[in-house]
Design goal:
Serine Threonine Protein Phosphatase 5, Tetratricopeptide repeat; three-stranded antiparallel beta sheet; Beta-lactamase; 3 domains; Recoverin, domain 1
Length: 509
């Protein structure tokens, strides 16, 4: 779309009858779309906008549009992933306020540093694959990723040695707690999302990045690339606390060594310390949401455009997050929520809606399975409100929940127009399919014409019989005052007129 068309769409006449776009209107559209003023993709745009007058001429606007043409067009024409982002954020805020009242659960006290966290903390952040962002609560407070590090560690292992990772780690839910002293029938950790699997992935990374300091530098670099402009840190106190209370993780590692699970030449202590380091990476929900959106975006960070992970590796990661990411609650979570996720005992949950958004939730109180109580409740309410479950598409058009990916009228109009077109063409097979999906056969087009109007106008006898059989209203008037019987008379079909007249009389009784 040219700058001229966009300018005409947003310009307003001033008192001198000049067409100008108020600068405030541009800022308002950007804010409602979820694109922030500190978005580096629009740095030149915002710097230039500051220098321009309060009201923009067509030349001013063309200059701006040329700085970031594709993204600006997406924003102004509502073509971002979540078109009505402000409404989505409003609904999310209502869910947040409801869930905030839940104070059940307890802190993870087996790691001393985690037991010191304020249990009231609660934060939610989202980042869409187009870089739309929103935050709620304590989103500037940092916390340790703990097991939320496991998806990234798995991706790094895949980047290091490819699919050979699964010569050492399985891909099945364990059916056990995350630190259970158990391996599969091949003597492997069950999957990369439990402690034994993450320790093994760390060992596989170390076969390529042998030096401990360089290895962790590499891991931090990759986390930072996933998080774009957001800060990634390291909590040394948690790292030391983790080491001091690591008996079970040492037992897991020695058990795997006994079973000869590791590749040759692995230093067990080195690998365990690397695992503790990965769990002690520190960030806030703003950063974690960007990391999650990088996974949602097929490994490309939406705020930088940088390809961090291969898309096939991300696909594998999301598959395992779906089946194994929520400890021993993974099956129930996949059933109720149906979104790839990974939780950690610090109270974090990283949620990935593929091709849509990444979400980070942090609330430290945990349930008996080690998942954030508020986090699980918020995820559940999210899919009660929005069509985010992996298999929501099977519900058809009977599902009245919101789909944030669709415009305000897009879903409704698409269904109505499909019905009307099928009726006008006499396509009975398609009409049956659409009605079976839950579409209202009394819906009308922009002229107020229903499928019955159109079936009568086209002289489609079988279509008429079907619509009558499902009880459509024969007395609807279009915007010109015409009823279906008027269309039937104009079409010249005597049998159609007779059938419709009988149906009208029957309905009147």
């Amino acid at each position: 779309m040219t700058a001229s068309f966009l300018f005409k769409a947003f310009a307003e006449y001033n008192q001198k009858n000049e067409k100008l776009i108020p600068k405030a209107l541009i800022f308002d559209v950007l804010e409602k779309s979820g694109i922030r003023k500190d978005d580096k993709r629009l740095a030149s745009f915002f710097n230039t906008l500051k220098t321009l007058p309060v009201n923009l001429s067509e030349d001013d606007f063309e200059k701006l549009q040329g700085l970031s043409p594709a993204l600006l067009e997406q924003i102004l024409t509502g073509q971002l992933t979540i078109p009505r982002f402000d409404e989505f954020c409003h609904d999310l805020s209502l869910i947040y306020e409801t869930v905030k009242e839940n104070r059940s659960g307890k802190l993870a006290d087996y790691i001393p540093q985690l037991a010191k966290v304020d249990p009231e903390k609660f934060a939610v952040s989202i980042c869409s694959v187009d870089g739309q962002r929103f935050d709620l609560g304590d989103f500037d407070d940092s916390f340790c990723v703990q097991s939320c590090s496991k998806p990234i560690t798995y991706c790094l292992a895949l980047e290091a040695i490819g699919e050979d990772v699964h010569n050492y780690v399985g891909a099945e839910p364990s059916g056990k707690t995350f630190n259970e002293l158990t391996l599969n029938a091949k003597g492997q950790p069950h999957n990369p999302m439990i402690n034994a699997g993450a320790i093994m992935c760390g060992a596989l990374i170390s076969t390529v990045y042998k030096d401990a300091s360089n290895r962790f530098d590499y891991v931090m670099k990759m986390w930072k690339e996933c998080a774009g402009p957001e800060r990634i840190g390291f909590d040394n106190a948690v790292y030391l606390s983790e080491k001091q209370t690591a008996d079970r993780n040492y037992a897991l590692a020695y058990f795997m060594r006994e079973k000869k699970s590791f590749p040759q030449g692995i230093d067990l202590v080195d690998i365990l310390e690397f695992y503790f380091q990965c769990c002690s990476i520190e960030l806030n929900t703003k950063a974690m949401a960007v990391v999650a959106s990088t996974l949602a975006n097929g490994g490309v960070c939406p705020l930088t455009g940088e390809q961090v992970f291969r898309s096939d590796h991300v696909k594998n990661c999301l598959s395992l997050m779906s089946s194994c990411g929520m400890y021993d609650f993974s099956g129930e979570f996949a059933f109720r929520v149906g979104i790839p996720a990974k939780s950690g005992v610090s109270g974090g949950i990283m949620l990935v809606v593929p091709n849509v958004l990444g979400m980070a939730i942090w609330s430290p109180r945990l349930d008996e399975l080690g998942n954030s109580v508020r986090g699980v409740e918020l995820c559940t309410k999210l899919t009660e409100r929005f069509k985010f479950h992996t298999f929501d598409s099977t519900l058809g058009l009977k599902d009245d929940r919101k789909d944030p990916r669709r415009g305000a009228y897009e879903s409704r109009l698409a269904g109505t127009m499909a019905l009307c077109l099928a009726a006008s063409e006499g396509d009975l097979t398609e009409l049956r399919r659409l009605v079976g999906r839950g579409l209202d056969a009394n819906a009308c087009d922009y002229d107020g014409r229903t499928p019955l109007h159109l079936a009568c106008a086209g002289g489609h006898l079988q279509t008429l019989r079907f619509l009558i059989s499902i009880g459509v209203d024969p007395n609807r008037s279009d915007r010109f005052g015409n009823k279906p019987i008027d269309d039937a008379r104009r079409s010249g079909g005597e049998e159609i007129i007779s059938i419709l007249q009988d149906y009208i009389k029957e309905r009147a009784l």
